[in-house]
Amino acid sequence: MVDRPKLLLSDLPLQAQPALSRILDANLDRAREGLRIVEEWCRFGLNSSELATECKQLRQEIAKWHTPELRAFRDTLGDVGTELSHPQEETRANIGQLLQANLCRVQEALRVLEEYGKLYLAEMGSAFKQMRYRAYVLETNLLGYQRQQKLLQSSLYLVTSASENLFAVVEAALEGGLTLVQYRDKTANDDVRFEVAGKLCKLCHHYEALFIVNDRVDLALAVDADGVHLGQQDMPIATARQLLGPHRIIGRSTTNPAEMQRAIAEGADYIGVGPVFATPTKAEKAATGLEYVRYAAQNANLPWFAIGGIDPSNLNDVLSAGADRIAVVRAIMQAEQPTLVTQYFISQLTRVQTLRNYRSHLPQSHA
């Protein structure tokens, strides 16, 4: 926190003083406006008091520098920049783009204030340097929070397989409401994987869905994926966390209670439970059956997805065993109508989640 500064421009040529004041005034406005837009989403969209409070505190600290002396130099009618625009500023495809644009706006404004502020008052440069770092942290925390919230809300998880119609199938599923996609290809060359993963990542983010890369932390980082899914033979979760940072998602495959408990203890964000039924995707692994699903329903304290040979014909058995999230491969990747299959899965999972949530709020004698 700082006291409101006094105007100290005496060392500048007279003709430079109005320009400097207008630069500072414009960027103080820009930073405050951008933060308010982000704050509103943190408050009303995410219901996060912590993130909303940080936005508000940062906005108020910036406001202390916005003195009447600086405002006095404002010349909106004479500002040539009011007529400048760019096509990208005219539309926002989704909340993610809106937040990213305004966070960038805040950070750019803070950088301008940091540099020009050094000509206004010595301590202004250092003050806005610290605020700029706080804006970077805010962006990271906000992105991480949104990923975790999206993960919690996702009941259906599509794991891709090689297909000539890969992009069309994934987009059809996204149109059906899918919000979580994993890119899995064990045989393609790295240059192909990089190209495909990059396109899938952009496609998923266009639909505000999470994009996860199977096994490859380096590939996940290269295409700015939301996280990585690790098998039992892949690197430790702690190592992946060091490479990915604290705000990306890490999942782990598990086939028995011991692997589940270890994944939880190591800090996985979610786990796969299976393969429930025999599947050619995991031909080397014996089916775990529904008993492991029942164990997960009683003991898992993080999001978990039943996986392995699940399709519309056996979905009810999996749900009856306690699952309310599933991961599928062939059921969607080989479907004639991926959108309809996706909608069917999500409707059934939503029905079960709603019913269980209702029962959990009943008095014990009625549950």
From TrEMBL:
Question: Where, if anywhere, are coiled coils annotated?
Answer: none
What's the top EC group for this one?
Answer: transferase
How is the cofactor bound here? Binds 1 Mg(2+) ion per subunit.
Q: Which residues of this UniProt protein bind 4-amino-2-methyl-5-(diphosphooxymethyl)pyrimidine?
A: Q182, Y183, R184, D185, K186, N214, S253, K282
Q: Which residues form the ThiD2 domain?
A: 22-140
Family the UniProt entry places it in: Belongs to the thiamine-phosphate synthase family.
Q: NCBIfam families, alphabetically?
A: PRK02615.1, thiE
Reported function: Condenses 4-methyl-5-(beta-hydroxyethyl)thiazole monophosphate (THZ-P) and 2-methyl-4-amino-5-hydroxymethyl pyrimidine pyrophosphate (HMP-PP) to form thiamine monophosphate (TMP).
Q: What name appears for this protein in its UniProt entry? A: Thiamine-phosphate synthase
Q: Which organism is it from?
A: Floridaenema fluviatile BLCC-F154
Query: Which gene specifies this protein's sequence?
Result: thiE
